[in-house]
Structure formats: C-alpha cells, structure tokens
C-alpha cells in the first residue's frame, strides 16, 4: 500500500505550475523538487537518513519549506517544533521524541542548546551528495509528529502518516473543491497542522502556496481582494483584522477568491455578517492535531441558521457522540485519524474500537450538525493556539509560594479566549512575581492574562477542581 | 479499511444538491438516496441480498440508476451487461458470472431467456421491506464487474472494487479539479466504465449527472454552450458530431463549461483545432476496464505539441514500459487497477509484481509522455466500443463453409475504426450470407463492416496470423 512520491509526481505531472511564493520570489513544482533533492543530498551528507527522526524549528520561510521537502524525499520523520515555546518546553519534546538531529533556523539558535542541533546555514553550506529518492511512499509512513497536551499537562507526540495527510487533503477537496489555479495563503504556523496541511495539499493537488513569515492583515486583505490567492486559513482574531482592513479600504473580495477556512472555535456571527458584506465566504472548521486538520466544517449557507455549530463531517469522516442522539464525548472515525503517539505515550491507544475519543463534549442536532459544548481537558483556544490549563497549573504549582492553582479560559475580543489563573498561596508573593515566573517557563501565549490570589479553589466532594465554577468567577 | 456508505454520506452532507437529471426531471442526493433505499427494500423482498451477485441489463434511464444505487445499498456485486450484445454473448457472461438474479429493463426482456430474470417492472411493483443499509463499505468490496475480451476471444469478467472506483475518482479530481457546481453529461453507456465511473464520481464528489438515454449531438452542443453542464465524456465520433453542431449554430462553449473527456484512442488533431475554435477544452484519455477508467490524460496545452500521445498518468498511477526508455509492453500500477477476474478466469493473476501488464505496446518520451503504438490483442476501438478480432474470428470460424478467417481494424471517419474480415472458404457461400450469420451471433458494432473472400491469409513461419499484413490489405 503505497503512494507515488508526491514531490516527484507533482514535478513530473505539473512541473511548470507555481508551488510556492514568498514575498517577491516564487518556485514551480519542478524547481522546488530540484531544491528538495539538493537539500536531501545535503542532509544526507550530514548524516540524516530515512531511519532518522529529526526535529525542525523555524519560522515560516522558504528555507523551512526546502528543509521539510528535503526530509520528505529522505523519508525521515519530522517533529514539528513550535517556535513560540520556551526552551524548557522544547527540550521536553526533543527528549521525548529522541530525535537524532534538531534542524534549527539560524535566527532561532538561542532557543535550543543541544549537541544534536544542525543550523539551516550548515545545511545550506553542506556539500550535497547524489541522492536517489524513494519513488514509493508507504501509506503508513510517519511524515510528521506534532506535540499536543492533554489532561495531564504532558505534551504527547502525535504521529501523522502519509495516509492521514492524503485522506485529509482528499476530504477537503471533496468538500471545498479544487482547481489547478488555486493558491492558498498560509499565514498560520507551518509547525501546526493548520499550516503543515496546506503544504501537504499543495503537493497532493499541485496547488500554489503563498507563504507569509508573519500574518499581515493588510496584505492578506489586499491579496483576497485582488484575486492573487483563492484560499486562506485563519482563526477568529486574524479574520477580524482582515475584515477591518477590507472594510477600511472599502474593498470587496475578488471573484477568484474562494474561501476562508476558519479554525480555533466558532466564529462570532458578527464577523460572519461582516465577511458576507465584504463578499468573503467563511467556512468554519473543527479539527485537531489527532485528525490531521479539518474534521467537520460549517458551510457559509448554514452559518446563520446554525450559530455555534461546528458543521458536518468531511466525506471520509464519521462523527458521533458516545450515546447516539445525546450529549456526550465526541467520537471520530476516518483515515485521517492518527494511529498513535510516540515517546512516553507510545503505548497509549489513541483509538478505541476504531474511534478516536476526542475528550470534547458535544451533540449532533436532528439534521446532523455537530455542536461542541465543552472542550477536551477544558482546552483554551487562544488565537488558534491550544492552551491546556493543566500545563499552566503544573508550572505554577511548582513555585515555592504556591499552594494550589486553578486555570481556566476567559473570553477575549482579540484572541477568542485567554488563560486566567487563580492561586492560593502558602507564602507571600505578588501576582506580578508569579507571572514573571510563568514567562520564564511558558510560551508567551500560555502565560495567564490575569492572575488572582484567592483564599480557596472551588472543588467537588472528591476534591476535583471545578473548572466550570472557576469560569463563573471570571 | 472502509469508506462511509457513499449514498448515505452524500445524502447527509449535500442532500439538497442535484444528483441526477434526465430530460425534464431531476433528483437531489437526498431524494435519490430515499429512492435507492426503497429499491434496496424491494430487491430485498425479491430475495436479493448482500451476498448476491446480480447482472443488470438496461438502457441509460433513471430506473437503471435507481436499480444500481439500490444494489449499492444492498452491497451486492453487479455484472454490468452491454445491451448491444447478442443473446448468445449475454448468455456467456451470465453463466460465467453465475449470477443469482438478472435485473432486466422491460424493453430489453427479449434479450435474455432465463429463469433468473427479474424485470424492472417487477422490482418497481414489489413491496419494499424495511431495509437498513450498511454504513461502512469495505474498500475491497467488489462493486461492479465488466466483461472485456482478450487474445482468446473469451470475455473475462473484471472486478472493480470500492477502492478502485474511489481512487479513480480522486485521481481524476486531482487532475481536472472539482467544484460543488459540477454537472457531468453522461451519454456514454452506464454499463461501460466510461459511464459507470461518472456515477461513482457523482456519489464521491456530490456532483450532478445529466443523463441521456441516447447520445444527441445537438442537445449536447446546446448544453455545453448554455453552461447547464460542465463536463462530458465522448469518443472521437461523438466529439466530431458535437463540434459540427456547435459550428453550424455558430455557438461557443459557455464559460461555465470545463472539459470534454475524450476516450477511445487519440483524437485527430483537426478535431482538436475545431474544438479550440469553439472554446471547448478537450482532454484526451487512455484507460481501460482493468484500470477503472482514465489512466493517463493529455492536457489541452500539450495536444498539438504531442500529437498522438496518451499524455501523462493521473496522480495515483504509475506507468512504465517493460524496458525502461524503450518501446515495450505498457505496465500500470495504482489503486485503481482491478484485483482480478471472476468466473472461468478467476485464477488468472491480473497483476505481476504489482503491475498490470496491459498487452498494449508503447513508450514514454523524454518528457514522460506516453505513446501507445500498438494495442493489446490487436484491439479495434469502434465508436468507443472495444472489438477484439479474435472474438469475431471465433464466430466466423464456426461457420461450416469457412476454412479460416482473419479480422483487423480499418480506419473509419465516423467510428475511428471498424472491423473488417478476410475469409478463406472450404465450401461455397456468399459474403452476405456470412455477414447475416455474424449479425445473429454478434453485437451489431462487432459485425465486420466488410468481408472479403480470399485465397489465403498472411501467416508467419510458425503459422501465426500476421494481422499487420492484413491491415495493409485494407
């Protein structure tokens, strides 16, 4: 059970089509394949081979894509590191994954102090050896590994196979459609499934990617309105900024522009109405690292009628709740679902009876629309980033002045949600000191937006923290 | 390894979209699913079940689609009978397939005299029983069986699985693109892979099918030019008639019309130029029953530059020749390739080392374009129908007055090719008598267009018929 090598096949079948564009530069599939082969040869010279597992840490630049595609040709597993994580957080993932190499963009070299580091500059300067790529890729080959936390606060490395990515790309195409002229604007992180899946779709569809190092609302608005891109992935906060830019310039989306794919929780209906006025179709999507991106989507036509819904599954997915027709844990089945974890959690079964137990709570209405009513492990989604309360609680609990701590999400106009913390002290300390401590240990988006010192935390009879009551305190 | 039931899933996900249209009637995916469930219940009442193998014989009408979709829900294997075959030819396939039921459109009932026949009228009148469709389809489930002949003149029943059809539909989408607004005009036979694959794409994409009972050049031209359809499958002869109609009416293809998919051998460059003048993009395709339709396609942009080429493979296919870079037998690999035959040939391996050996001879040029230089078993393709010389020779040889016979293809302006026969007699008989005999035994399109009585046939040293020399006689 194999696929033809996606890079080679695309170069062969649509070599002259635009594969990647960044600022003023662009590369065709033929050109990018040549570069990827060269990078594979360079990595090979540095000792990376098909049985290597490598970690990659970079910003969204063409060099990052070249390294990823070089690794794809080589056949090695890639652990996608989040550049916003603290050094401690990165070290945990690198060690759990037991990687052979850590490929790091020069600008991020201070993030990782490890003998396994190879800087992008060293890769570029390496003397490429002749390299013959595998022409067949096994379907169960692990392409990427992304860490995601859970109830325990310990991030788990989620495997995403060639079949996961392929099925996800196909299901998306069967939902949104594809044409040879499509260009997807990618200003979401490549180390997240939201961005990585754009690259996978690019190779599978023969579709152009317009890559941004950083999200830029005005430029995104400009490209949506002049038709130089057809798709864009956003979260609520970035959508809002694009809409403001389009509105301020009194522009309208180009006829060539097709759809905004909006993740990270339901989009406020006010945004949906503003988008409609700008001629911008917005498809809301619910998905996760374990399902290799989109699982369900809410069509534009249903957005008003089904406010707050996550929509219906993509073609190859099935979604149900534990007890049919009732509120319960959301279960997902399909070829996009990860086969499991690596590292410390590699023994943990990710599927039960073929179904992924998401931990999210929801229900399907009588028309089969999914509503997510409570998220796994009290997940906070802040500007598209997943933030797990347990992870922040673990850090704060370790502070000598802290007796106990509870974290929950608070609504935020900009970010959708932000984390806030409630702390019971055992020694004197200021909230500011505790926040400074958090900033050392955690990625900035995980640092509580507010930290309140309280007398005690709401707990139930068996002493379990009642996070719902915490949220009522907000 | 399963798929969600395609009919149920499409009804759930895009129930309100148009699934089928015929003359003035149309049905949405929700409606057609309800009908299909009703037909499944009726067929169930008549004794058909998921372990049944049924043969289906009908013209391209909505009822035919309802029966097919009912069978899909039931999970039974469908032997697709060619309504143009003679009763003898049909009997061979029915017996080889050992079907439990033969579902026959009322208008064709004189074609089959068999106790297993159930007429469509009987199905419609049956009292439907409550029926719960399978919600999961195994990937290796055999959906359809189509007979195709070969060197021996004995038709072999080719299995096409759910995975074959799904992969074929996906590969086509990755090549041509898909959008939710697509409507495919189907005036090619549903019992051939060319037509059947349109139905499969419809279910997988959620795409509308505009069904014609008979090809109609003027109506097809009208629909291409008014934009009520976006795709159409043709062979050379039907393309030419459509072009003539468009030209006579001084029309142009609608902007909404996307592509003509042209099978049955290379399209004359004169047609390609006429199509271009009419604004009609023509994609030439090479495929076969064993590959579940399209294997390679020649893009519009390459048509003039690569006259006579069959193009490049679809994304999930690999194509090579036996000796790399040289003329040789064409080998094909991919998830669209049949796992094998049924009946008398069920033991025959269809793949060797994972590759389908097509019997066709060809080469790949330095850019990777496939050229087919000689077709399997001296195959004659006449108006899109495959005609195997050996099959006609077998029939004529059985005539008491015939000593030996050789059949080959002759060029035809209308049909691309037509079969012609050369006969050596052992008793007195006229050519007209022999042709009348053929008409009793063979589908009309297989009856030689011309039959010449000769002294001897060209044979080589080992007495093998030299069909190339025969062709030189034409």
UniProtKB/TrEMBL annotation, chains A, B:
It comes from Planococcus donghaensis. NCBIfam families: menE (TIGR01923), PRK03640.1 (NF002966). Belongs to the ATP-dependent AMP-binding enzyme family. MenE subfamily. The keyword ATP-binding applies. It catalyses: 2-succinylbenzoate + ATP + CoA = 2-succinylbenzoyl-CoA + AMP + diphosphate. Converts 2-succinylbenzoate (OSB) to 2-succinylbenzoyl-CoA (OSB-CoA). GO terms for biological process: fatty acid metabolic process; menaquinone biosynthetic process. PANTHER family: ACYL-COA SYNTHETASE (PTHR43201), MEDIUM-CHAIN ACYL-COA LIGASE ACSF2, MITOCHONDRIAL (PTHR43201:SF5). This is 2-succinylbenzoate--CoA ligase. It holds the Pfam family AMP-binding.
